[in-house]
Design brief:
There is one protein chain. Helices cover about 65% and strands about 0% of the residues. The protein has about 70 residues and is mainly alpha-helical. Helix 2 packs across helix 3. The longest helix has 11 residues.
């Protein structure tokens, strides 16, 4: 899950449909990306970085972030 992105989206009163328009992708594609099932492209990351005015690393988590967190707790 891209928790930072979800938080930013909600703090800015944006819905997934708004994000789809910003990125010019389908709702299904965006949902998969936000849930971490599919990676965002570099172009999409740059677009969102510019949109929110934040560095990419403050928006996106490493792909294995959730896996690492889970493994350490077990």
């Amino acid at each position: 899950m891209q928790w930072n992105l979800i938080r930013l989206r909600k703090e800015n009163n944006l819905f997934q449909k708004d994000m789809e328009k910003i990125l010019s992708i389908s709702k299904d594609a965006y949902g998969l990306k936000e849930r971490g099932k599919v990676q965002f492209t570099m172009d999409e990351m740059f677009t969102l970085s510019q949109y929110f005015g934040l560095p990419i690393e403050q928006i996106f988590l490493p792909r294995n972030f959730g896996d690492t967190e889970t493994k350490e707790r077990n």
